[in-house]
Amino acid sequence: MNSNIVADFSRGVDGLLPAIAQDEANGEVLMMAWMNEEALQATLDEGYAVYYSRSRKSLWRKGDTSGHRQKVSQVRVDCDQDCILLKVNQIGAACHEGYRTCFFRKVDDDKQTLTIVEERLVDPNDVYGK
Q1: 11 in a domain, yes or no?
Q2: Which residues are recorded as binding Zn(2+) (predicted)?
């Protein structure tokens, strides 16, 4: 299958589209990453989330290092076909900082301070080393 039918990568910057991972059970937004056409096709083929790492300039199979994988139950695309939503079963922490979600901080009432509002599931040093 040609994934250009599913998503319009020509609309993205450098052939990349934002991809949002959402917990299939409770709707919690877990993380945002980038996908290129190859990452989307790998995700569709393998059934687990595969992203594109801009820093490494290569595919990134979520959980290859940490074991914290994302089993994809559904792939959705927005109305313009330039944003991807993955409904996933998250195994372990989604965030590389050890939290279930990357959105573990909230902006306080002073609109200048961030407060951690989630519990850390794992110590990132134990998972990734220093």
Answers
A1: yes
A2: 79, 95, 102
Name the binding residues for Mg(2+): 78, 80, 82
Specify if 61 maps to a domain: yes
pLDDT in tens, 32-82: 999 999 999 999 999 999 999 999 999 999 999 899 999 999 999 999 999
Q: What does the buried/exposed string (b/e) look like for 70-97 if buried means 16 or more CB atoms within 10 Å of the residue's CB?
A: bbbeebebeeebebbbbbbebeebbbee
Whole-model pTM?
A: 0.91
Q: Considering all CA atoms of the chain, what is the largest pairwise distance in Å, rounded to the nearest integer?
A: 50
What DSSP line would sit under 68-92, residue for residue?
Answer: --EEEEEEEE-TTS--EEEEEEE-S
- The CATH number of the domain holding residue 86 is 3.10.20.810
Give the dihedral sign, CA 60/78/6/21.
positive
Per the structure, the count of domains in the chain is: 1
Quick one: tokens of 80?
Answer: 């313009």
Query: Which segments are annotated as binding site?
Result: 78-80, 82, 95, 102
